[in-house]
Design brief:
The chain is about 25% helix and about 25% strand. By secondary structure, the protein is α+β, with helices and mostly antiparallel strands. The longest helix has 22 residues. A hairpin with a 4-residue loop joins strand 6 and strand 7. A six-stranded mixed β-sheet has the order 3-4-2-1-14-13. Strands 5-6-7-8-12-9 form a six-stranded mixed β-sheet. It has a single domain, classed as Endonuclease/exonuclease/phosphatase (Deoxyribonuclease I, Chain A), CATH 3.60.10.10.
Length: about 260
C-alpha cells in the first residue's frame, strides 16, 4: 500500500509551528506533496529537513511566495522543476518526482482572487498545464498530479455555490477547465471514492469560524490516471489537523 498526501501548507514554517512533524510521524505518508511553501529551501525548518524523507523543492524567485515540494521515503530516480514557461517556473508552481513505479507531481495553481490580472494569469496557467499533463497519460508509468488547483469543480464541492458563482475559484470557465481535464482521461480520485457525498471540503477561510461551521471549498485534488484510480482504496481529508487553512488530502493506493 502506498499512501500519498497533498497539503497546501500556507507557509512551511507556519505549518511546522502548527504540528507538521507530528502529523507526519502519526500518519506516515510514503509521499507528501506540498504547496505554498512561502520559503526558500534553506528556510525549511530543520526538524522537517531531518525527517526520514528525501526532499525536493521548487521555490519561487519572489521571497515568501508560492513554491512546491515533494517529500518521499523512496529516493526519486528523476526530478523535473517547472514546465518550461518562464513566469510559471519563476513562481515555483509545478514539480515532478519520478519513482520506479509511478510519477508524482505537486501542483500549485495561481489564485485569481486578487484581481483581473491574476485571474488572467490563472487561466493562462491552466491553458499551459492541460497539454503538459496530458502527455503523461500516455506514458508507461502511472501518474498523479496532486495539489491545490484553486478551483471547485461542481456545486457539491463548495458550501454556497449560488453566492460564489461569480467568485474566482468557481467561475464557469474554471469549472469547465476541470471538466476538460477529466474528459482527457484524468480522474478526480477523492471524488470517485466519495461519489455524491456532500460537505467534503479541503479549504476553509480563516474568517467567520468557517472551519468550525464547515463552510469550505474542495480545491485540493489527486488527479490520477485511470490505473491509479483502480488502485485507490481509501481517500480521506484530514480536517482534524489544523496545519494551515487547508487539510491534508490523503489517498492510499494498492501499488
Amino acid at each position: 500500500m502506498l499512501k500519498i498526501s497533498s497539503l497546501n501548507v500556507n507557509g512551511i514554517r507556519a505549518a511546522h509551528r502548527h504540528g507538521f512533524t507530528d502529523w507526519v510521524s502519526q500518519n506516515k505518508p510514503d509521499i507528501i506533496c506540498l504547496q505554498e511553501l512561502r520559503a526558500l529551501e534553506h528556510q525549511v525548518p530543520d526538524p522537517i529537513q531531518n525527517m526520514d524523507y528525501h526532499s525536493v523543492y521548487h521555490t519561487a524567485e519572489k521571497k515568501g511566495y508560492s513554491g512546491v515540494g515533494i517529500l518521499s521515503r523512496e529516493k526519486p530516480i528523476q526530478i523535473q522543476k517547472g514546465i518550461g514557461v518562464d513566469w510559471i517556473d519563476n513562481e515555483g508552481r509545478i514539480l515532478m518526482s519520478e519513482f520506479e513505479d509511478l510519477i508524482v507531481f505537486s501542483v500549485y495553481a495561481p489564485s485569481g482572487t486578487t484581481g483581473d490580472e491574476r485571474q488572467d494569469l490563472k487561466m493562462e496557467f491552466l491553458d499551459h498545464f492541460l497539454p503538459f499533463a496530458q502527455k503523461y497519460l500516455s506514458g508507461n508509468k502511472p501518474v498523479v498530479f496532486c495539489g491545490d488547483y484553486n478551483i471547485c469543480h461542481k456545486p457539491i464541492d463548495i458550501h454556497n455555490p449560488k453566492r460564489n458563482k461569480n467568485t474566482s475559484g468557481f467561475l464557469p470557465e474554471e469549472r469547465e477547465w476541470v471538466t476538460q481535464l477529466l474528459e482527457t482521461g484524468f480522474e478526480d480520485a477523492y471524488r470517485r471514492l466519495h461519489e455524491g457525498e456532500e460537505d467534503l471540503y479541503s479549504w476553509w477561510s480563516y474568517r467567520a469560524a468557517s472551519k468550525e461551521r464547515n463552510k469550505g471549498w474542495r480545491i485540493d485534488y489527486h488527479m490520477t490516471c485511470p490505473t491509479l484510480l483502480e488502485a485507490a482504496e481509501e481517500a480521506v481529508i484530514e480536517r482534524e489537523w489544523d496545519l494551515s487553512d487547508h487539510a491534508p488530502v490523503t489517498i492510499s493506493y494498492s501499488i
